[in-house]
Write a structure and sequence with these properties.
The protein has 118 residues and is α+β, with helices and mostly antiparallel strands. The chain is built from 4 helices and 5 strands. It has a 5-stranded antiparallel sheet.
Length: 118
């Protein structure tokens, strides 16, 4: 019985910590790209970030490229306004807003369709 109370307390504390942004969690974001751009780091272009403005839903997302797989970097580079995208980002809410979160997955549905026709 004591272990059950401890487990419930820890699980409640974890939910609160996630809610206030202390613990990283995965966020899935889908929408239509309104604008996209690359902001290079002043020392090394590979360490810059992509900034994506989604139209539906209205959201601004910063995606650092330092540890990003080449396939994701290329897909982001080929993304244009009007493209439908889906991404999974790991991090707390503040890290996502500041561009310090890690992208786990990125899919550009329009680009996939174009590549299938090649």
């Amino acid at each position: 019985m004591g272990n059950n109370v401890l487990t419930q307390s820890l699980s409640g504390a974890m939910r609160i910590a996630e809610r206030i942004g202390l613990i990283a969690q995965d966020w899935e974001v889908s929408g239509t790209v309104s604008r996209i751009g690359f902001v290079p780091h002043f020392k090394a272009a590979r360490q810059g970030y992509y900034i994506v403005l989604l139209n539906e839903p209205l959201e601004l997302i910063r995606i650092p490229t330092a540890n990003l797989a080449n396939a994701y970097i290329e897909a982001l580079a080929l993304t244009t306004p009007g493209d439908e995208v889906n991404m999974v980002i790991s991090g707390n809410q503040q890290a996502i807003v500041e561009g310090n979160a890690k992208m786990i997955a990125f899919t550009n549905h329009m680009l996939v369709g174009d590549l299938e026709r090649l």
